[in-house]
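Why do we care about 3D structure at all? Because function follows from shape, and shape follows, mostly, from sequence. That is the central idea of this module. The next example makes it concrete: a single protein chain, its amino acid sequence, and then its structure expressed as tokens.
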Amino acid sequence: MKDTNELKYVLYARKSSESDERQAMSIDGQLMEMKEKAKREKINIVEIVTESHSAKETAQRPKFNYVLDNLYKGKYNAIITWAPDRLSRNAGDLGRIVDLMDQGRLELINCHSQTFSNNPNEKFLLMILCSQAKLENDNRGINVKRGHRNKCQSGIRPGPAPIGYINILKWKRISSVEFDKERAPIVKEMFERVGYEGHSGRVIRRWLRSIDFKTPRGCEMSLGRIFATLKNPFYYGEFHFGGYWYKGTYQPLISKQLFDKVQIQLETTPKQWNKQVFPFKKICTCASCGSGVTAEIKYRVLKSTKVNTHIYYHCCRSKDEKCREPYITEDEMINQLISLLPQMKLDKKYLLKEFNDEIKRVNNMRMIIEDSNYKGKELTPHNGKEEIHTTDEMIKNYLLHILQFGNPQERLRISEGIKSKFILGDRNLSIVN
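And the structure:
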């Protein structure tokens, strides 16, 4: 081994921010001690490298990897550090250090109370000390998990309480969970608005902003956090931790029935853009607040496992988030449109074109069916030359037919020909004069 004065040292100081190293010396403290040691022993420090990172996992510390790369390249050939566990708390990084010593690229590790050179006994001692640090980490992890499990079995979830609750600490440990008197009533109202009034996550967010609601850290609730809150079973008295379910000993904020209602309300089907058509959204507005009308599909699984599909129209609450106008089914809306058909103002020119196109399509299909030698002819519905002489009654009958038997795309097309505007109030349509 070279003389100590001829070695080129890198000073490496590390401090993890994790709770298992709260008692370890700070980086500034390590630097001060090792610089004094270097001055006393006339050690040549080529570079100082500091790092705030856990050493539990292999090859995860950027600065430590940088040090090993430079040892391999020969920039320095010795390390000065506070203690062996500053270098490694895992078998992978320890093996890399020992390999560099075996190759002769790392000649000495100089710690506060001892040194490790490239000889079997000292390398063996280095491996024992670093392995002991790993053992401490492993045991600490087991003890933490055991403590969490015991805490869960006592009905208290480890970690920060969800918004609306606060942790009560005793000797720096969670002893109980209680309501946050300022926020709990608002969180409860969030569930009630979704479960009983059908509010969406975005409507809830607008409401929270209107009342200037803030989290304990003074932030607005994001849409993602709103949904996470509404889906958290903690609020009805149960919680999931470590792969198991536990019953809480704290007071629930809501009932299980309300929680289940909210989950049903939050269920959404995958969005298929430009595929789902709601033909009557644009022809009416809300009678109570003047907002537009939107629609959504609801699925209900029967005992026979058959799935019933229903389309509901309702106020979109863009002007009044508290609007309580009830839903109306699409079938009921169609029945009411049919009853109002004699009073509607119609775009007869537009509907006449749609009617003529439909007649031509029917005639074209009849020609194909009746002509057994029909080959190579265009299948366009606009081939017919005969003009159809229509009356107002025929147009209304055509409109009635599409309302009763048409598909959503056909209903959407004929809705463009309805000039009358409607208001929807208390599940009833009425024409705006």
